[in-house]
C-alpha cells in the first residue's frame, strides 16, 4: 500500500459514514477497547439511549461472532496451550436514519446455506416472535455449547430496528465471505 | 459459605449472594469473555445451597444494564433453578430491575417470567443512569 492511498482510504470511509473500521485479527481485549470508544462516541453525539444500547449490544454479538466463528484463523500450540487468532472486518457507521454495524468474515462453504436460511427466516420475523424464539433457543442450547450460532443472530435480529442485510460471496478454496449489516 | 461477593467489572456484573438471609443479586453489565468460566463458580454453590432449602424466603434480584446472548442462557438457567426451588415449597421472589427506558431488558424479563408458576416475578423500573 502506498502512503498516499491511506489518505484515500480514509476519505472513502468518511464518505460512507464509517466511524470505526478495523480489519485484522480480532481478540476479546480489542472488543472491549473499541466497545468503550464506541460508547464514548455515542455519548458525545448524544445518540438516543435506546439506539445507543442496541448498537452496543449488536456490536458485542457481531465481534464475538468474528472471534469465535471466523474460518480464517491461525494458531500455535505450545506449553502454554493453544494460541489462536481469527480474522475479521468490522465497521460501525452512521447513515441517514441511524447507525449500522457491518462485519465480514470467511466461513466454510458448507455453512452458507444453513446460515442463509436462518437469516432469511429471522429477517421476516416481528420483534415479539423473535423474543419468543430467543427464549426457546436459549432453553434448547445448553450454556456450555456456546458454539451454536443460533442465539447470537436472534439477539442481533431482535435489536436491529431498521433490519438486517447479509450476503455470501465465493472466496475460493471452499470458503465464502459472509457479511452481515445490522441497522438501528 | 455465607457470603459470596464479587465487585462488578466492565464486563462482569457485581455478585451479591448472602446465603444466610437467602438474598441474591446480580448487578451491572454482563458480557464475559467466557460465560461458563465466570458464572460456573457463582452458580455451583448457589445450586447446592438452594437444593437444601425448605420453606425458606428466597429473593433473587437481576439488575442488568446490559447482557449478551451468552449471559441470557445463564439467566434462563437461573430462572429455571429458582422456579424448581419455589415448586418445592419455598417462597421465591424474582425481582427484575431495568432502566425505565430499556425495552429490551424489560421484554426479556417478562418473556422469561411467563414460564413461572411458583416463583413470584416483580418488575422494577429504575431511573435512568446518567
Count of separate DSSP helical elements of chain B: 3
Q: What is the alpha-carbon Rg of chain B in Å?
A: 14 Å
State mean pLDDT of chain B (0 to 100 scale). 93
By secondary-structure content and strand pairing, the structural class of chain B works out as alpha/beta
Q: Quote the average pLDDT of chain A.
A: 90
Helix/strand structural class of chain A: alpha+beta
Shape of chain A: globular
Query: Helix and strand succession of chain A?
Result: HEHHEEEHHHEE
Rough outline of chain B: globular
Find the count of extended strands of chain A (DSSP E, 2+ residues). 6
The Rg value of chain A, from CA coordinates, equals 17 Å
Work out the strand percent of chain A: 25-35%
**Physical arrangement of strands within the biggest beta sheet of chain B:** 1-2-3-4-5-6
Oligomer: heterodimer
Q: Which consecutive residue ranges of chain B, at least 5 long each, have pLDDT under 50?
A: none
Write up what this structure looks like.
The complex is a heterodimer of chains A (about 180) and B (about 130). Chain A is of the alpha+beta class and about 180 residues long. Chain A has six helices and six strands, in the order H-E-H-H-E-E-E-H-H-H-E-E. In chain A, strands 1, 2, 3, 4, 5 and 6 form a six-stranded antiparallel beta sheet that branches. In chain A, a hairpin with a 2-residue loop joins strand 2 and strand 3. In chain A, helix 2 packs antiparallel against helix 3 and helix 4 packs parallel to helix 6. Chain A is globular and about 50 Å long. Chain B is of the alpha/beta class and about 130 residues long. Chain B has a six-stranded mixed beta sheet with strand order 1-2-3-4-5-6, with helices on one face. Chain B is globular and about 35 Å long. Chains A and B meet through helix 2, helix 3, helix 5 and helix 6 of A and helix 1, helix 2 and helix 3 of B.
